[in-house]
Amino acid sequence: MSTLEQYLKIIGLESYKDLMVDNGYDDPELISELTEDDLVAIGVKKGHAKRAFLKTKEMAGKQNEGSAQSPDVSSTSAPPAPTPAPQEEKKRSTTISIGKKGEEEDDDEEEEKATYNGPILQSKVLNEGFIQKKGNEGFFGSKMFQKRYFRIYEEGRMAYFKSQHDVSPVGVIEMKGSLACEDMEGKPLGFKLSMKTSARVYWLVAMNNDQKQKWVSVIKQQITPPAVPKPIDPNEIRPYLQNTEEPSQCASTRFDAANTWDAIEKQVVEGQIRLHIHSNGSLFVEETRTIELGEEGLVWIKDLPKSIDERTVHFQSFTEPTAFVSEQTYHNDAKTPERMLSKLIGKEIQVSVPRDDHFDEPLVLKGELIYNANDSTYALQDKETNTIHFLKTNEAISYNLLETQIEPIFKNSSLEWNINAKEPKHLSKISYNAKDLFKWNATYVAVLNPRETEMEIRGWFTIENESGKTFNSSNVTLVREPEEKKKEEEKSEESALPSLPKLGGFGLKLPKIGGFGGDSDTPVPEKRIYRYEVPHKTTLRDGESKQICFVSTKLPVKSLDFITFATPNYQKYAMIGKDQGANSASSVNSSVIFTWNLPYSIPAGQMKLQRQLKDKYGSDIVNTFDIAHYNPTDIISLPLQPLGKVSSTRTQTGFNFDLNGLFIVETYEIRVNNGREEPIKITVEESLYRSTFWEITSSSHKFIPHPTHSRKIQWQLSIPPLDGEVIKYSVFYSGLNLPASMTAKKEEKTN
């Protein structure tokens, strides 16, 4: 079905297709400009013409209601101004138009009501004439083309008027804020003007081809094209920048950085112990021992934790590299009466059973221990008296072994090996895994001076040993595993998600290609594993909890009121989805901020923040909270407390992504409201997360670059009591780094 047929079917005029074509109306856009009287004049019945008008009016209303959630990747202008007070409507002919009203419709009506109060336009006119102008496109495009009289002035402004003789313009376009002037697809006489200082795109149609060429030529002379950054290699290793999405972790060392191979191999020394203690309870142990082989290569490996995973045991001989364990038996007897009796079956024993009436004179029984497998009961058979006494294992019974036992009744955690080797003595490395024997966490205590300009911070590892073994002089590595959510929590989160509206019509949106779709959500960050070395060898005794200080330092800090937004982490490729990061939540806190300038990372953990009293005797506990993992050079913000009665919102007011020009123009409005009865000074921080190369093309308030972070900017506001400030700014991203799948589509479209 053609676009014309679709259009006519929607407005209820599909039976008039031939009539429309015969009268030269074969373009939906031309049909959309016809009035009811025009339709009747070419042969459409009055009732059908009226029905078409009502149908388009109904659809326009529905699309207007859903415009806030309708996908539009090409461009979006600012939200419509508040509805003015009701006025008497002007009588005018009815125009059939299918397209979203409001934020994506032509804004001439609003501009006409406003009075132009910009600079006086007195310089030389470079070109002038009538041009058809419209707003941004809806589902079928904004159909309200209106003829305007345009003039381009030598000072770099293009003004448009309602008529040729008007003195005051409807609007003025700053040519210095323009990006490019290009042909309009599907319109031989059309061209579009993309703005750099806003996400606006002006769609214009000249009267004839000569005029179009003249207009385009003069406009391009006024535009200063932006510098195109040098394309970057997405696989190039770039300097570390906080908030960058880290490369995926991989088990293969083929992907490790080259500088990690500079590690010096450690010499093998007897008695070395290395522990890898994981936050999920897993344990890896590696020990260096000297072992001596017995007859037929028999070896007992004792002094092990109370339980190990015998399937993970590994033996390596440095004395004889070809030696290996040919057989292995793991022993670890449970200390229970049942386990002991199972080993005494068929042996002569003596049993003492206490009596309630004569507790100090127990009943003594002697005989051979037998076992009835049918009902799992034990009994003592006295062959001399031919009597049998049943035993209850839950009673306080004592046993006397009448026969000499070569081996102990209970065998502790141990390994019985048969080693295939020639040498009788081996310096060897033994490793194994275990579970739920150790626990660890990180905690911090930070103390601010009274003026909040300096902070002393100490960090502690707390390690609990419940392994049944003491590890002496051990090298310890602590491993932070990602925490897995419980199924109940996942279900509750899924049920809390709002249902997404169904989007209909013919709205254009980019396909989801590797997370780059026009309405795709921000990718969920990968769960990572972090490793932290205990700075010195330590002894971890069984049954004890040890605290190890891994950081103790003083740092300069800055105390301020701070607003931040939870924008996405920086990614390998540019984020071109309109909604990516657009609805980021804000946090308003009184905070202390500092840069972590030590050469090692610090783990996530709980921090207790204190502040010294003014007499420096004693301190107050200011806040207790969890901090995340941080790397060297990271900027750390510690919340003192939420800044009450101060709120902030961040709203995307425009977005224009150009695949051909590889640029994005985005506009935002940040509102900060001070509900306090005293003035505040507050810093608003914004992260420019979409791409590496950015430029702030307009800002209602003066901004400053972040002192250390190359992709953040800040505004410093002073807000009176019970007042507010609104920051409006535009950012221009250029030289977008896109995946090959998208650049290939661009080349196909160009060809």
Automatic annotation (TrEMBL):
PROSITE patterns according to UniProt: PH_DOMAIN (PS50003), SAM_DOMAIN (PS50105)
Region of interest: Disordered: 55-118, 478-497
Database matches in InterPro entries: PH-like_dom_sf, PH_domain, SAM, SAM-SH3_domain_protein, SAM/pointed_sf
Gene3D superfamilies named in the record: Pleckstrin-homology domain (PH domain)/Phosphotyrosine-binding domain (PTB) (2.30.29.30), Transcription Factor, Ets-1 (1.10.150.50)
Protein name, UniProt field: PH domain-containing protein
Biased composition (Basic and acidic residues): 480-494
SUPFAM superfamilies assigned to the protein according to its UniProt record, in alphabetical order: PH domain-like, SAM/Pointed domain
Occurrences of domain PH (ranges): 124-224
Extent of Polar residues compositional bias: 64-73
Organism whose genome encodes this protein: Dictyostelium firmibasis
PANTHER family: PH DOMAIN-CONTAINING PROTEIN, SAM-DOMAIN, SH3 AND NUCLEAR LOCALIZATION SIGNALS PROTEIN RELATED
Residue stretches making up the SAM domain: 1-63
